[in-house]
C-alpha cells in the first residue's frame, strides 16, 4: 500500500517553525524581564544621586578647559582622573558608606597625583636626612601643587554633588558653568564653545533623569510601566541629544551665532573684544607698549628692554641631549641705549641634511665636543630660529627621521651662529641636530687677544651709542683695572655684576630718577637689581667700552632633568654612575627663557659668559675631563625667586606629610567609631529634651524636609491630614508615614512617656523617610 507523506511533512515543518518562534519570543521576554529587573533594582538603590555625581564630574571636566595652556599637561591628567575616579566610586559603592567613600577617594587622589605629577629632582641627597629622607622630601615636594589641585576638585565635586539635589540647583550649577565658559571664551583666546555644547548636552541628559526621578517619587506605578519598555523610552531621547551634540560640535556656521551677550554687543558696535590673560593673548610687541609686567618667555622684540615679568612655567620644549647646555637662539649686536637691534644681516648658507656647516668664527686653537640633540616642541608657537647648543654644526632630520629636509626650510648664518627657519613654512614639531661646542680652556684664553679678524665686524661689535654716560665706561675701567689679559678683564666684569647686583624679576622702577635715559646706566647706578636682560646687556656694554667685542644672545637655560624613576636613588647616586655630562631629557619651560653674553677671542671664537646673579653656564672642560657638577644651590632656570625658596619649601614638606597622615588617621578613626559618634551626636542633640519632646522634634524635622521637597501642608491641616495627602503620591511609603504619625500622636497627646529605644527607632524611621524622599 502506498504511503503519502507530503502533508504530514509540511505540517511538521510548520510546527517546528512555530516552536522556534515561540522559543525566540520567550527568550526575548526573559531578556526584557532581566533588563527590567536590573533597572528596577538599581532604581531602588537611589540611582539618581549616583548619576548626579557623574554629571557634576563631567561638567567640571569640561569647565577645566578655561585653564588651557595655563596648566601643565600633568595637571589636567590629575584633574580628569580624580574626577573620573570620584564619580566611579560614588556610582559603585553604597551611598550610605559616605566616610568610606571619602577615604577611598582621598587615597585615590594621592595615588593619582603621585602617578602623574612631574617629579623633577634636581637636588642631591642631604647628608642630614639620608637617601630615604631625601627621597621622601623630594617626593612630597613633587606633589605640590598637583596634590592641592586634586584635593580641591574632590572637595568641589563632593559639595556640588550634595548640593544639586533639586531641579533649581541643577539649573543654577549648569548655568554657572556655561556662564564661566562663555566669559572665558570672550576674554581669552581659547575657543570654548565646544565645551559649552558638551555642558548643554549633559544638562539635557540630567534633566531627563531628573524627570524620571520625580516620576518615581510621585507616580512610581507610572514609572514601573515605562520601565517595562526601556529601549522605547530611552532611545528617542538618546538620538535627539546625540544629534544636537553632533550639530553643535561640527557645523561651523553655527559657531558665530553662539556668542555671549557682551560679545554680541561689542560686535554690534563694530568693536573687538579685548583678551587679557597673559602671553597667550598678547604678543611680545604688545608687551613693549604696555606698562606693567608681562609673562616670561622667549622675546620677539628687544628694541626696548626693561620692566618686569611674571613667571610662566608652562612647558615650551623638551631636549634630549648628550650634554647639558644652554639652548641658543638669536644674536643681536647693535645696542641703542634702550635695547638691541641687528644692523648686520648676512645672507645664510643653504642647509642640507647630514652635511656640516661652514664656520667662519676662527676656532683653530679650540677643542670641540660633539653634542647630539633631539628637540621636541610642546607649544604651537613659531620662532625665527631653531634652538640648540652653540654652535649648531649639522641638521639630521626635521619632524621625522624618515622625512626629507626641504632645501628652502632653513639657512645657516656662520657670522651669527643662527639656524634660521623659513617663516613661511610651519615651524617644526621636532628636529635632530649636532653641535660642535668649544671646551673651556682658560689657560689658552688668557693668551688670546679679544679681537675679530675683520675690521668691519670688530668695529660693529665694539660700537656704542654716543649718548652712553661716561660713568658706565669709568666703572668698567675701574672693575677691570687689575686684569692682566682680555679674558681676565671679561671675567672681572662678569664677577662684578654677579656679586654686586640683585636678581629680581620685578625690579622697583621707582628707583629710576629719570636723569639718564640709558638702560644700562639706569641699571648699574640706580636700579641695581633686575633679571637676565639687565645683567647681560650691562656686561656687553661694559665689555665694549674697554675694547672687548661682544654680542647679546638669547635663548633658554638647560631646563630640568627629571629623575627617571620614583624610588629612592640608592646606587643610582653613587660616584660611578653619577651623570657627569648631564645627558638626558630636559623639560624647558617659558620660565627658562634667558639672555647672556658672548665675547670673541682670537683662535677660540665666541666664548659665552654668564653675568646674571644666580646662574651658571654649563661649560665643557678640555681634554675630555668630566664637567663639574652643578651644585644644589645653583639655579638651572630663570626662576631664582623660586629656587631660592627650595629650602623653605622642603622644610614645609614635613608639615604636608604630617597633615596627610593626620587626615588619614582621623578618617580611619571616624570609620571605626562611626556608631559611637552617631550616638554621641544623638545625645548632644537630644540631651536636654524628654523622650516625647525628642520624638516631636524629629517629626517637625520631617515636616520641614517634606515642605522643601514640595509636599506642602496647609495651615488648617493637621499632621494626620497632611500625611494622608502625602501618602496618596507616595504609596510605597504609606506604612512608614503611618508609623511616624502614630509615634508623633502618642508622644504629643499620650500620657505615657517614650523609652530611649523608642526614640532611637523613631529617629531612624524619620532618617529613612528623608533618605527615600531625596
UniProtKB/TrEMBL annotation:
Transmembrane helix is among the record's keywords: yes
SUPFAM superfamilies assigned: Cysteine proteinases (SSF54001)
Residue ranges annotated for the Transglutaminase-like domain, each copy included: 524-613
Keywords, comma-separated and alphabetical: Membrane, Transmembrane, Transmembrane helix
Domain of life: Bacteria
Position of the signal peptide: none
Classification via Pfam families: DUF4129, Transglut_core
Residue intervals passing through the bilayer: 51-72, 78-95, 102-121, 141-163, 170-190, 196-212, 233-251, 653-672
PANTHER family from the UniProt entry: PROTEIN-GLUTAMINE GAMMA-GLUTAMYLTRANSFERASE
Protein name: Transglutaminase-like domain-containing protein
Organism from which the protein derives: Paenibacillus paeoniae
Amino acid at each position: 500500500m502506498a504511503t503519502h507523506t507530503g502533508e504530514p511533512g509540511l505540517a511538521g515543518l510548520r510546527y517546528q517553525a512555530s516552536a522556534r518562534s515561540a522559543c525566540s519570543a520567550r527568550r526575548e521576554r526573559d531578556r526584557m524581564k532581566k533588563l527590567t529587573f536590573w533597572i528596577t533594582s538599581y532604581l531602588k538603590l537611589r540611582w539618581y544621586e549616583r548619576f548626579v555625581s557623574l554629571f557634576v564630574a563631567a561638567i567640571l571636566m569640561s569647565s577645566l578647559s578655561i585653564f588651557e595652556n595655563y596648566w601643565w599637561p600633568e595637571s589636567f591628567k590629575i584633574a580628569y582622573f580624580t574626577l573620573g575616579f570620584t564619580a566611579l566610586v560614588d556610582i559603585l559603592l553604597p551611598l550610605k558608606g559616605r566616610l568610606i567613600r571619602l577615604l577611598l577617594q582621598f587615597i585615590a587622589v594621592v595615588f593619582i597625583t603621585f602617578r602623574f605629577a612631574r617629579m623633577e629632582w634636581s637636588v642631591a641627597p642631604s647628608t642630614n636626612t639620608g637617601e630615604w629622607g631625601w627621597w621622601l622630601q623630594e617626593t612630597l615636594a613633587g606633589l605640590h601643587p598637583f596634590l592641592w589641585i586634586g584635593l580641591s576638585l574632590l572637595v568641589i565635586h563632593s559639595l556640588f554633588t550634595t548640593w544639586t539635589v533639586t531641579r533649581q540647583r541643577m539649573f543654577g550649577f549648569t548655568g554657572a558653568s556655561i556662564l564661566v565658559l562663555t566669559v572665558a571664551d570672550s576674554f581669552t583666546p581659547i575657543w570654548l564653545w565646544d565645551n559649552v555644547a558638551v555642558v548643554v548636552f549633559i544638562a539635557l541628559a540630567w534633566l531627563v533623569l531628573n524627570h524620571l526621578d520625580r516620576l518615581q517619587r510621585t507616580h512610581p506605578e507610572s514609572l514601573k510601566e515605562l520601565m517595562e519598555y526601556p529601549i522605547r523610552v530611552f532611545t528617542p531621547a538618546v538620538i535627539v541629544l546625540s544629534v544636537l551634540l553632533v550639530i553643535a560640535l561640527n557645523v561651523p556656521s553655527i559657531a558665530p551665532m553662539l556668542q555671549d551677550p557682551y560679545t554680541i554687543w561689542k560686535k554690534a558696535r563694530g568693536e573687538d573684544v579685548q583678551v587679557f590673560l597673559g602671553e597667550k593673548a598678547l604678543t611680545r610687541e604688545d608687551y613693549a607698549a604696555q606698562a606693567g609686567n608681562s609673562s616670561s618667555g622667549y622675546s620677539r622684540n628687544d628694541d626696548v628692554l626693561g620692566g618686569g615679568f611674571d613667571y610662566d612655567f608652562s612647558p615650551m620644549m623638551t631636549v634630549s641631549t648628550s650634554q647639558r647646555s644652554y639652548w641658543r637662539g638669536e644674536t643681536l649686536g647693535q645696542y641703542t641705549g634702550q635695547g638691541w637691534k641687528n644692523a648686520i644681516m648676512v645672507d645664510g648658507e643653504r642647509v642640507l641634511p647630514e652635511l656640516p656647516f661652514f664656520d667662519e668664527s676662527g676656532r683653530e686653537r679650540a677643542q670641540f665636543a660633539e653634542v647630539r640633540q633631539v628637540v621636541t616642541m610642546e607649544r604651537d608657537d613659531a620662532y625665527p630660529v631653531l634652538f640648540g647648543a652653540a654652535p649648531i654644526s649639522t641638521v639630521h632630520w626635521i619632524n621625522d627621521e624618515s622625512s626629507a629636509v626641504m632645501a628652502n626650510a632653513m639657512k645657516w648664518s656662520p657670522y651669527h651662529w643662527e639656524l634660521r627657519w623659513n617663516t613661511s613654512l610651519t615651524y617644526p614639531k621636532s628636529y635632530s641636530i649636532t653641535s660642535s661646542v668649544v671646551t673651556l680652556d682658560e689657560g689658552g684664553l688668557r693668551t688670546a687677544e679679544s679681537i675679530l679678524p675683520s675690521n668691519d665686524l670688530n668695529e660693529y661689535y665694539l660700537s656704542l651709542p654716543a649718548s652712553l654716560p661716561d660713568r658706565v665706561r669709568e666703572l668698567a675701567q675701574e672693575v677691570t683695572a687689575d686684569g692682566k689679559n682680555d679674558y681676565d678683564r671679561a671675567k672681572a666684569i662678569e664677577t662684578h655684576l654677579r656679586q654686586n647686583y640683585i636678581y629680581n624679576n620685578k625690579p622697583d622702577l621707582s628707583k629710576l630718577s629719570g636723569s639718564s635715559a640709558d638702560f644700562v646706566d639706569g641699571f648699574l647706578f640706580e636700579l641695581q637689581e633686575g633679571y637676565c636682560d639687565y645683567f647681560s646687556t650691562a656686561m656687553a656694554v661694559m665689555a665694549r667700552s674697554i675694547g672687548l667685542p661682544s654680542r647679546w644672545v638669547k635663548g633658554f637655560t638647560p631646563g630640568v632633568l627629571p629623575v627617571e624613576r620614583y624610588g629612592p636613588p640608592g646606587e643610582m647616586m653613587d660616584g660611578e654612575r653619577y651623570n657627569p655630562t648631564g645627558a638626558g631629557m630636559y623639560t624647558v619651560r617659558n620660565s627658562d627663557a634667558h639672555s647672556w653674553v658672548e665675547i670673541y677671542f682670537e683662535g677660540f671664537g665666541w666664548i659665552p659668559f654668564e653675568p646674571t646673579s644666580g646662574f651658571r653656564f654649563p661649560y665643557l672642560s678640555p681634554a675630555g675631563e668630566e664637567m663639574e657638577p652643578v651644585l644644589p644651590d645653583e639655579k638651572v632656570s630663570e626662576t631664582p625667586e623660586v629656587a631660592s625658596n627650595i629650602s623653605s619649601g622642603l622644610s614645609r614638606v614635613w608639615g604636608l606629610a604630617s597633615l596627610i597622615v593626620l587626615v588619614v588617621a582621623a578618617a580611619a578613626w571616624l570609620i571605626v567609631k562611626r556608631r559611637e559618634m552617631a550616638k554621641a551626636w544623638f545625645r548632644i542633640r537630644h540631651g536636654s529634651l524628654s523622650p516625647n519632646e525628642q520624638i516631636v522634634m524629629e517629626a517637625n524635622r520631617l515636616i520641614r524636609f517634606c515642605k522643601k521637597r514640595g509636599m506642602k501642608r496647609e495651615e488648617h491641616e493637621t499632621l494626620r491630614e497632611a500625611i494622608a495627602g502625602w501618602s496618596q503620591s507616595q504609596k510605597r511609603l504609606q506604612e512608614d508615614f503611618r508609623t511616624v504619625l502614630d509615634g508623633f500622636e502618642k508622644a504629643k497627646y499620650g500620657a505615657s512617656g517614650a523609652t530611649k529605644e523608642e526614640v532611637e527607632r523613631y529617629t531612624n524611621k524619620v532618617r529613612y523617610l528623608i533618605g527615600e524622599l531625596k
